[in-house]
Design brief:
The complex is a heterodimer of chains A (about 170) and B (about 775).
Chain A (H helix, E strand, L loop, with lengths): L1 H17 L15 E5 L10 E3 L1 H6 L2 E6 L8 E6 L1 H7 L6 E6 L4 E5 L1 H5 L2 E4 L1 E2 L2 E2 L9 E4 L10 H6 L4 E6 L1
Parallel strand pairs in A: 1-11
Antiparallel strand pairs in A: 1-2, 3-4, 4-8, 5-6, 5-11, 7-10, 8-9
Chain B lengths: L1 H4 L6 H36 L3 H25 L6 H19 L5 H4 L2 H20 L10 H127 L4 H32 L7 E4 H19 L2 E6 L6 E4 L1 H17 L5 E8 L7 E7 L6 H6 L9 H7 L5 H11 L3 E7 L3 E8 L2 E2 L20 E5 L3 H14 L2 E5 L2 H10 L4 E5 L7 H9 L9 E6 L4 H10 L3 E4 L4 H10 L46 H10 L2 H12 L5 H11 L2 H18 L2 H16 L8 H30 L1
Parallel strand pairs in B: 2-4, 9-10, 9-11, 11-12, 12-13
Antiparallel strand pairs in B: 1-3, 3-8, 4-5, 5-7, 6-7
The chains are: A alpha+beta (about 170), B alpha/beta (about 775).
Chain lengths: ~170, ~775
């Protein structure tokens, strides 16, 4: 994992050194649903990067089905990988502070995103999630893939009604 | 538990099965419980059970926040954001699902407060949903906000109650989990106890098994010790038997000397043909008895392991010829043809015990003759295969033969092919056993093949080393008839043997001096000069061996004198010991002229007798020849005449016939003449109550009385001897008078007998 991290850093630095224009991030066209702030290289609204549903949909989509403590049966989550999202904004910190609409807050180490697929889910069982069903965004781990994920640490980090990420 | 108890019979698979069962029995529930516990932990962590309370709290809190937001919107409709208000409502709704759709909602579902809350929440959403559908205009719709406000106030106590219910549910769940854990702990303890118990049973079974084995081992050790002791005892008893037999041999052979000697001497006297016939019968019977005795002695010495072969260069052909010569008579008597063929390439001289070699051949040929009613007996003597260096003797007959069963038992002791034959033929049944033992001692064996009605073949193989001819072979003196007159000193305590030897030596033409024991012999040797000393092995005061030792310790030429030991003891140990102390030669009891002659010539005092072959010890049938009993035809003497109570006239007559009159008178003198006569010495000893002297003299008197046929005197002296030596009874005063009375009767009887003899002689003339 360290190697991969290292390679990624190398790649990013190389891009920076060559002075290539950073991947442009368009301003959201619809109502923004996610704000990314802090140590990021790409911004589209002053000091932060804002995303609407379309922009998130444009990122590569992934999905997995897993059991969770919040649903009485396994459910399918679909959305961009957290790592892809962070790459899109050129995040360079170690921790991201996630905030939900209901003001729930949790710190997630950035390494989580590189060590396993962590999805910023926008579809639950292939359907968009309204706020009343923990939408519109839900950071979720594939709990069924590893036993160590089935602990309160990762259940806590699975934040729903996500509205903002602050990279530190 | 009959099957458990016998652990010794368990095989490997039983043990494996038992251990596997034990492990399965104890480990399966353990594994199950562990699995249950893992599941429990999984359940707790993955279902976030304790979050029920958190969710209930969050639900109530979101309601409060919604309530607050609605209030703010009511107070400041201008700045209030309808979208934010709607979002707050949505967040609240999301909390409802979180609580009502969580996996462990069952913990809450059955409570009335939960049902009520669900119902109220449904009502609330029914009212609120349409109101929140237009978020932009919401802050300005005062009525709608008031409705929401009122609904929230209704909902608040319900959710409060739900939170408390959630708290109780979690507590119940914890209780339930604790109960489960406690049950499992109890189960674990129980299982551990069962495991320990089963282990204990197993260990105790093993301990019992080991103890039993130890006990068995101890029993076996004890048994083996007992067996060892029993064996030792048996060996001791067997040894005792052998010693007894050796002693008996001596005891029997001593009187035999007298018997055979006298018979031989009698043959030289002038006899009528009838008397000669009687004499022959007596000789035959005696020799038969001697044969039996020799057989028993051979077996006993073989058993005690003391029988040793005396190996010497032996002229094989001569041995064969001797056997031929002796056996032809027996074959001819029975009307059989006996042919003995020595092979042309037979080794001339071999290292062998000639006596024993002859014994084997005699036994086998004699057997063949015995069991062959008609036809022939054929004997071949040849070399075995060249390299092996042995001799094979084949005895073939056309006799009755034997079946396989009989052949199998042939060499067992006392076995005879046919009981009816035994009666007809007689014999000890020891001959074949002895022969085979001898053959084995000579590095060979005896094989038999036989067919009933056709005949038998006995094959003897012997390992006999071929040797060079001895140097003195062939130097047969030209004139062997000439012999020296020797001065012989004889130490012999038994008066009859003494008498016999004196006559024997006189007839052989030697000067004899007699003494009664070794001590006297030593004194005589000191005073006079002799050529040879004949010592009896058993003597009072100083026995043969001790005397020899003492002689060898003497000063001067007397210590170099030749010593011939006269003994009935055939045990090799005795001979070995005798040679060690310095005995030159042996002569067997009963002493024979040929024996004595040979012993003297071996000492270098006489030339070899002319009939001997150099290097060979020739013995005649009449010698102490180890022939088997059945060699000798048995002819029982006719019933004896009625005997006088005091005197055995026949015995006395024989003695009279044999002895010159002055010798007889002298002999009677040693008995009756006072004060030196045995009778008087005995009377004196009785008077002195000297038990030892009484025993010795009574024994002496008994011997002489027996020889002379003084029956009454024999009886009384035997009784006195018995009382003196075998019992602790006092020597009563009446013994003396009784003895005197018997002496008187004997002397009267003698006088009467002499008178009658004279009158008979007169009548005959």
């Amino acid at each position: 994992m360290n190697t991969r991290q290292f390679l990624r850093i190398c790649l990013l630095s190389a891009l920076g050194l060559l002075g290539l224009p950073a991947l442009a991030l368009d301003a959201p066209k619809e109502r923004p649903i996610l704000t990314v702030s802090g140590k990021i290289g790409v911004k589209n609204a002053g000091d932060v990067a804002r995303f609407d549903m379309k922009m998130l949909e444009a990122l590569p989509q992934h999905s997995f089905t897993t059991r969770t403590p919040w649903f009485d049966k396994p459910v399918k989550f679909t959305g961009p990988l957290l790592s892809d999202l962070l790459a899109a904004v050129k995040a360079s910190g170690t921790t991201l502070s996630a905030v939900a609409i209901n003001d729930y807050k949790i710190s997630i180490p950035i390494t989580d995103a590189s060590q396993q697929p962590v999805i910023v889910a926008r579809l639950l069982d292939d359907k968009p999630m309204p706020v009343r069903e923990k939408g519109p965004l839900f950071v979720v781990y594939n709990f069924d893939s590893k036993a160590e994920l089935r602990s309160s640490v990762f259940y806590e980090r699975s934040i729903w009604q996500l509205k903002a990420l602050d990279i530190q | 538990m009959p099957t458990f108890a016998n652990l010794a019979k368990w095989e490997r698979r039983h043990w494996v099965a038992a251990i596997a069962a034990l492990l399965a029995l104890t480990l399966t529930p353990l594994g199950w419980i562990q699995w249950r516990q893992v599941r429990l932990l999984e359940d707790v962590s993955s279902n976030q059970v304790d979050s029920i309370m958190w969710q209930a709290y969050q639900l109530e809190r979101e309601l409060s926040r919604l309530y607050q937001a609605v209030h703010e919107a009511q107070l400041n409709p201008e700045i209030a954001d309808g979208y934010q208000l709607a979002e707050r409502y949505e967040v609240f709704l999301s909390r409802i699902d979180l609580l009502t759709k969580m996996p462990r909602r069952d913990l809450l579902e059955n409570s009335p407060s939960f049902d009520k809350a669900k119902e109220q929440l449904e009502l609330f959403t029914q009212v609120a949903d349409p109101i929140f559908e237009q978020p932009e205009s919401l802050p300005r719709q005062k009525v709608s906000l008031e409705v929401i406000d009122g609904q929230i106030e209704l909902l608040q106590p319900v959710l409060n109650e739900l939170m408390r219910e959630a708290n109780r549910a979690v507590a119940r769940f914890v209780d339930e989990r604790n109960t489960q854990l406690r049950q499992q702990s109890h189960l674990l303890i129980g299982l551990a106890a069962v495991q320990a118990l089963v282990m204990l049973i197993f260990v105790s079974l093993l301990v019992r098994h080991i103890r039993r084995q130890q006990r068995q081992y101890a029993r076996l050790k004890k048994l083996s010790r007992e067996l060892t002791e029993a064996r030792d005892q048996a060996e001791a008893a067997n040894h005792g038997k052998s010693v007894f037999l050796a002693n008996m041999s001596h005891e029997i052979r001593t009187p035999f000397q007298g018997l055979l000697g006298m018979l031989n001497l009698l043959g030289d006297a002038s006899l009528t043909s009838q008397q000669r016939d009687y004499l022959q019968t007596a000789r035959d019977s005696a020799l038969h008895l001697l044969g039996v005795l020799n057989d028993i002695l051979d077996v006993s010495t073989m058993e005690s392991g003391t029988l040793k072969l005396s190996l010497a260069p032996t002229h094989l052909r001569t041995v064969v010829q001797e056997v031929d010569g002796l056996m032809q008579v027996a074959a001819r008597d029975k009307g059989l043809s006996l042919d003995i063929y020595p092979a042309a390439d037979l080794p001339e001289w071999v290292e062998a015990d000639a006596t024993r070699l002859r014994q084997i051949m005699f036994n086998l040929i004699n057997n063949a003759i015995k069991f062959t009613p008609q036809g022939s007996v054929m004997v071949e003597v040849a070399r075995t295969a060249p390299a092996t260096g042995g001799v094979v003797i084949t005895v073939r007959d056309t006799g009755v033969g034997m079946d396989a069963d009989t052949v199998g038992k042939l060499f067992t002791r006392f076995y005879q092919a046919d009981n009816s034959l035994r009666r007809r033929i007689g014999g000890t049944g020891l001959g074949l056993e002895i022969s085979r033992n001898l053959a084995r001692m000579m590095g060979g064996d005896i094989q038999v093949s036989s067919q009933p009605g056709v005949g038998s073949v006995f094959t003897v193989t012997l390992q006999l080393l071929e040797v060079a001819a001895p140097e003195d072979a062939g130097t047969v003196p030209a004139d062997a008839s000439h012999s020296r007159r020797l001065r012989v000193l004889v130490a012999e305590d038994h008066p009859i043997n003494l008498k016999y030897m004196s006559i024997l030596l006189e007839k052989m033409g030697h000067d004899a001096t007699f003494c009664e024991n070794g001590q006297e012999a030593l004194q005589l040797l000191d005073r006079n000069e002799y050529d040879v000393v004949l010592l009896d092995y058993h003597m009072p005061v100083l026995d043969g061996l001790a005397t020899t030792e003492a002689i060898r310790r003497l000063d001067g030429p007397a210590s170099q004198i030749k010593v011939i030991l006269v003994t009935a003891d055939v045990v090799n140990d005795t001979r070995k010991r005798a040679l060690e102390v310095g005995v030159n030669e042996f002569a067997s009891k009963p002493l024979q002229a040929e024996d004595l002659q040979r012993a003297l010539s071996r000492c270098g005092l006489l030339e070899e007798p002319e009939n001997s072959v150099p290097g060979l010890s020739v013995q005649r049938l009449s010698g102490p020849f180890p022939l088997s009993a059945y060699e000798m035809p048995v002819r029982l003497p006719d019933a004896g005449e009625p005997l006088d109570a005091v005197l055995d006239t026949e015995s006395y007559a024989e003695v009279m016939a044999m002895m010159p009159e002055d010798s007889l008178d002298e002999m009677l003198g040693t008995l009756f003449a006072p004060p030196e006569g045995t009778v008087h010495v005995l009377l004196q000893a009785l008077n002195d109550q000297d038990r030892a002297a009484v025993g010795y003299n009574a024994h002496k008197l008994k011997g002489t009385a027996m020889l002379l046929g003084f029956k009454a005197l024999t009886t009384i002296s035997a009784r006195i001897e018995h009382v003196a030596t075998r019992t602790e009874d006092p020597l009563t005063d009446d013994l003396g008078p009784q003895l005197l009375r018997e002496v008187d009767r004997t002397q009267q009887a003698l006088r009467r007998y002499e008178l009658s003899q004279k009158s008979t002689a007169l009548t005959l003339h």
